[in-house]
Amino acid sequence: MQKVLLELKDIKKVFKKGSELIKVLDGINLNIHEKQTIGIIGPSGSGKTTLLQIIGMLDQASSGNIKINGSDTSSLSDKAASKLRNECFGFIYQFHHLIAEFTALENTMMPLLVRKIGMSKAKKSAEILLSAIGLGERLDHRPSELSGGECQRVAVARAMIGKPNIVLADEPTGNLDPETAESVFECLLELNETSGSGLIVVTHNHQLAHKLDTVIELRLGKLKYV
Ligand SMILES: Nc1ncnc2c1ncn2[C@@H]1O[C@H](COP(=O)(O)OP(=O)(O)O)[C@@H](O)[C@H]1O
Ligand SMILES: [Mg+2]
């Protein structure tokens, strides 16, 4: 039996906007196993980003229970929660969010430097990773000197370099033309296969979603396997 990395039990999320209550997640149950890849599809506004933010400990559920590697996360101190977030999760967004002043290499190294891993070791790991995804000749380029697809590949490398348990990608190819989207998606799958992380990808592209082990649709606050 493969190890369960993350368990969500009856997760609900309600936003308060003035006197209005917006019910977004209405009892989400989901497990992700080691090396499992999951695609989440669903209409705009259905709560996909909210769900990823809760999974990645960037937002809190209104109720329900989350276990990471078998341990409940609800009673962690802020400090322990950020340490766990940094070690367990890698994030990729629709827009690359690379630091404009930093090169591809420096952006990729960031998560290791945050963990106080030495400069030369971090540099070496970043070089190996960027070379593996075809950016070996672009190490010293800043984001403004890279194409959209190349920036997104750097964002993928940055998310993976710390060997997170789970990579969370929120519409990672949503801003790219179809051909580039497909090649960035392949790059994401390839690196993920090598690192053996779990992977959750939110995407509007059903064709890409079906390259993953499991596809789930979020609709009216609930998950449905499709
Ligand atoms: N901070 C917030 N305050 C109030 N409502 C929010 C907030 N964040 C998201 N929402 C609402 O929650 C719903 C789901 O949003 P979101 O998770 O971004 O959907 P998706 O990513 O599927 O498009 C939307 O109706 C949105 O307006
Ligand atoms: Mg969203």
Summarize the structure.
The chain is an alpha/beta fold and 226 residues long. It contains seven helices and ten strands. The protein has a single domain, classed as 3-Layer(aba) Sandwich (Rossmann fold).
Q: CATH-wise, what's the superfamily?
A: P-loop containing nucleotide triphosphate hydrolases
* Mean pLDDT reading: 96
Specify the biggest β-sheet: 6 strands, mixed
Sheet-strand content, in percent, reads 25-35%
Approximate shape: globular
Tell me, what is the CATH class?
A: Alpha Beta
Task: Please give the radius of gyration in angstroms.
Answer: 18 Å
Q: How far apart are the termini?
A: 23 Å
Q: In DSSP terms, counting alpha (H) and pi (I) runs of 4 or more, how many helices?
A: 7
Question: Structural class of the secondary elements?
Answer: alpha/beta
CATH structural architecture: 3-Layer(aba) Sandwich
Give the CATH topology.
Answer: Rossmann fold
Q: List the bound ligands.
A: adenosine-5'-diphosphate, magnesium ion
- Provide the spatial order of strands within the biggest beta sheet: 6-7-8-3-9-10
Tell me the number of strands.
Answer: 10
The number of domains? 1
**How much helicity do the residues have?**
25-40%
Instruction: List segments where confidence is low: pLDDT < 50 over at least 5 consecutive residues.
Output: none
The H-and-E topology, N to C, reads as EEEHEEHEHHHEHEHEE
